[in-house]
# Entry
Amino acid sequence: MATLTPSRVQAKAPGSTAKPPYWTTRRRDVLAGYLFIAPQLLGVVLFVLIPVGLAVWYSLNDWNVFTGEQTFVGADNYAALADDPQLPSVLGATALFCGGVVVLNIGLGLLLAVLLNRRFRGATFFRTLFFSPVVVSVVAWTLVWGFLLQDNGAINGLLDSVGIDGPNWLQHGDTAMVSVVVTQVVRSVGVNMVLFLAALQGVPSELYEAARLDGANSRVLFTRITLPLISPTLLLTAIITVVGALQSFAQIAVLTGGGPELSTTVLVYYVFQQAFEFNHIGYGSTLALMLLSFVMLLTLVQWQLRRKWVFHEE
# Structure
């Protein structure tokens, strides 16, 4: 009986009609990639795209949630933005709150990171101490600060012990805004501190040694070496801090309820008031879309500016 030699097998190969396997290596890799990103895509669709689409639809309607009655009003809710007498005060309070939180959070976080990046006894304890408020519940943290900031609270008690008559922090416009800003900064500064610490520890020590040999002082080391090399982290912290400040709700709701008057009514809290307290779902959705536009615009501006102040960005 004749057997197929290797030369005969090779000769028959070009004329073979066998189909290639469907699950090639490339297709398996593509499928694995889609499976890995599927949970994230599903979350984006369910919790971002669909809610934004519903907000756009609600903004075009006048919806009474109690009766379930919807009336299409077109762009009337958008036109109402220009006629809202409270909106300028709300936007002003939002700008003050966001600006104060961003400047203090980034500045204090960088300062703490520089100080705690040095080797000294107790450094780990202080790192843990400053980061620990981050893991505390926002509501619990704010409730405690609400008791501390009362007219007869612990803070005024400390001031009274040194002969200072403290104000009613949460009942005056200027001090109320300062109070909510400080409360937010003290709780969240630990995140930026940890990010800056990681960035500082990634700066090569050889660069500092070479600069010191050339006669550079501490200010030059910080401005010419440290800041440029940690500028990507600065960009990251700026984006997440701005977005977080624009979305801060619990601190305002628990501490001041937007008062006194409108001094601490930021845009996200005004959305809640219009939609769920005053039952203006359509107008509240319009304000929510305005807030989304601000977040996207500020993020885009910071991302575009990275080419000017982020090291090695082109």
